[in-house]
Amino acid sequence: MCVPFKQGQRVKQINRRNVVGILLGIPFILIGINHFIQPEIFNAIVPSYLGWPSFWNYTSGAMEIVFGAGMMVPLTRNYAARLLFVLVILMSLANLNMWINDLPFNGIRMSTTAHIVRWIIQFILLAVLLWLGEVIGKSTPTSEV
Q1: What gap in Å lies between CA 33 and CA 61, rounded to an integer?
Q2: Which pLDDT tens digit goes with each residue over 38-67?
Q3: 45 or 8, which is more confident?
Q4: Is 11 exposed, middle or buried (0-12, 13-18, 19+ CB in 10 A)?
């Protein structure tokens, strides 16, 4: 859906998916970069059964950067959002590992309530990614500019 606004004499359309893609892409890029700046805090939450925590950390960080940037570009947003959906599902293993094994993240242990709130936010994020990827709430030809 697009929202019109006046700019001088013309009416310009703002595509909500473009705005949300940028607003969501930036944090993914920043978090992805943080995987390289502070790898130890991310390595610590990789489930031991996966092995090679540095590999998973750097790989997921690189994907967050690439897919986050992809969400900011209308041409690639659809695919980037779908790929980020899959990545977030896979990274849920680390979040679940933190909760089950009471692992600290950056020296901080989360309460059960905090973990539940985190999962609720994660489900909302997944829904937004599906919307950005146009899996749900597909746009009509007249609403996209």
Answers
A1: 6
A2: 999 999 888 888 899 999 999 999 999 999
A3: 45
A4: exposed
The angle at the Cα of 102, spanning 25 to 52, to the nearest 5 degrees, equals 65
What are the domain boundaries of the chain? 15-132
Contacts 24+ apart (CB under 8 A), 19-24: 20/128, 20/131, 20/132, 21/71, 21/72, 21/73, 21/74, 21/77, 21/81, 21/132, 22/71, 22/72, 24/68, 24/71, 24/128, 24/129, 24/132
pTM for the full predicted model: 0.79
Confidence label for 97 from pLDDT (cuts 50, 70 and 90) = confident
Taking the alpha carbons at both ends of the chain, their separation in whole angstroms is 9
Residue 86, phi then psi, degrees to nearest 5: -65, -45
Cα(101)–Cα(84) distance, integer angstroms? 25
- Alpha-carbon dihedral 83, 44, 92, 38, rounded to 10 degrees: -40
Angle, alpha carbons 93-98-102 (nearest 5°): 150
